[in-house]
Design goal:
- With 404 residues, the protein is α/β, with parallel strands linked by helices.
- It has 12 helices and 17 strands.
- Strands 2-10-9-8-7-3-6 form a 7-stranded mixed beta sheet, sandwiched between helices. A 4-stranded antiparallel beta sheet has the order 13-14-17-16.
- α3 packs parallel to α9 and α4 packs parallel to α5.
- The protein is globular.
- The termini are far apart.
- Bound molecules: pyridoxal-5'-phosphate.
- The site of pyridoxal-5'-phosphate has 13 residues, from α4.
Length: 404
């Protein structure tokens, strides 16, 4: 008889976003006269840049010609894109990354999730709390997380990210093997400076640990001392894998293109993780479509850079509007300076879901309860800067008058 992977049965329901959506739609039904404004979505809203669309059209036309047709592509990505990534995202910052250390993929989510395949089941995994749920759930699926008891997985090492520590995790006090870090952070919108990241590289070296560094929001960084890549820190190539994505950088959430960097210097017992990941991708992944990789390449063109940076600026202006309005309303807020997320403390000791309900019921604005990202998110709500400016302004006016 076939047996299922019963680790899947241990997963608690993905209740956060479904509950948010259910509550929002129940509210709409009960109050058809009220406008709903979603400040909860983690998806971009601005259309693709003209330079990207132009490149995509051109690639589509090529595919209709005998000379320009592309069938199965290299699983690691076409060199034209890998070389552009090396040039623009690394060499330009003084980081030496080789073309064959870049693996183009259809998403940072898939890569963050699949990377676990190249690690043994008996690794101790450390995650931040609150956390992007993909890191936790994929380790649970692999049997690495143990059992879900109360609010925690029994075998994971949780690193609470709290206000008193600027939402930075503390270096583990016990030995862990795999460490997920995400800066700029989803959900807190906070980030780490070069100096703050150095001890993590030292810890990983001293303990033979691997850092899985998710830099999906790198394009939102505005402050000089915040690194865009973990490889800006000396020695990181020996201990870290980096995940990047065109999703938030260039509005590719529906277009799908990302990449993962696995340096040759990263070895466990003499085995290069680069060769294991290469084997993984060649066996389990078909590569990103030629047309999409051409679109991603256009992000690095002069026009592409100008246009995509405009969109980021627009979202960051929304973030500023949110930060300022909530601060004016008397709330304590974090994030939103180097990230499209604002992490707002609920007033008067309210719990995340209580504050979520109050905002929804009194203003029609939908947020995301922080507790849904992990127990240390309790008492916060997350707002995103991906709405239109008009809706952002409107939502903030409503929340301000609610809190008066
Ligand atoms: N990593 C983080 C921290 C995210 O918040 C997200 C998306 O919300 C992703 C990765 C997913 O990126 P992609 O669209 O490339 O799969």
């Amino acid at each position: 008889m076939a047996k299922i992977n019963d680790n899947y049965l241990k997963l608690p329901g993905a209740y956060l976003f479904s509950t948010v959506a259910r509550k929002a739609s129940e509210f709409t039904e009960a109050h058809p006269e009220m406008e709903i404004i979603k400040m909860s979505i983690g998806d971009v809203t601005k259309p693709l840049a003209p330079a990207v669309i132009e490149a995509m059209h051109k690639a589509v036309d090529e595919m209709g010609t005998a000379e320009g047709f592309h069938g199965y592509g290299p699983e690691q990505g076409y060199d034209f894109l890998r070389n552009s990534i090396v040039e623009h995202d690394y060499k330009s910052r003084g980081i030496d990354i080789a073309t064959d250390e870049i693996f183009v993929s259809d998403g940072a989510k898939s890569d963050c999730g699949n990377i676990g395949d190249i690690f043994s089941q008996d690794n101790k995994v450390a995650v931040c709390d609150p956390v992007y749920p993909v890191y936790v759930d994929t380790n649970a699926m692999a049997g690495r997380a143990g059992d879900f008891v109360g609010e925690h997985w029994s075998n994971l090492y949780y690193m609470p990210c709290l206000a008193e520590n600027d939402f930075l995790p503390r270096i583990p006090t016990e030995k862990v093997d795999i460490i997920y870090l995400c800066f700029p952070n989803n959900p807190t919108g906070m980030t780490a400076t070069r100096e703050q990241l150095k001890p993590w590289i030292e810890y990983a070296k001293a303990n033979g640990a691997v850092i899985l560094y998710d830099s999906a929001y790198e394009a939102f960084i505005t402050e000089d001392d915040v690194p865009h890549s973990i490889y800006e820190i000396d020695g990181a190539k020996e201990v870290a894998i980096e995940f990047r994505s065109f999703s938030k950088t260039a509005g590719f959430t529906g277009t799908r293109c990302a990449y993962t960097v696995v340096p040759h210097d990263l070895k466990i017992d003499g085995t290069e993780l680069n060769s294991l990941w290469n084997r993984h991708q060649c066996t389990k992944f078909n590569g990103v479509p030629y047309v999409i990789q051409k679109a991603a390449e256009a992000v690095y063109s002069e026009d592409g850079q100008k246009q995509t940076k405009e969109a980021i600026k627009y979202y960051l202006e929304n973030a500023k509007i949110i930060r300022e309005a909530l601060t004016e309303a008397g709330l304590t807020v974090y994030g939103g300076v180097n990230a499209p997320y604002i992490w707002a403390k609920a007033p008067n000791g309210m719990k995340s879901w209580e504050f979520f309900d109050k905002i929804l019921e009194e203003t029609g604005v939908v947020t995301t309860p922080g507790a849904g990202f992990g127990p240390s998110g309790e008492g916060y709500v997350r707002l995103t800067a991906f709405s239109t400016k008009e809706n952002t302004v409107k939502a903030m006016e409503k929340i301000k008058s609610m809190l008066k």
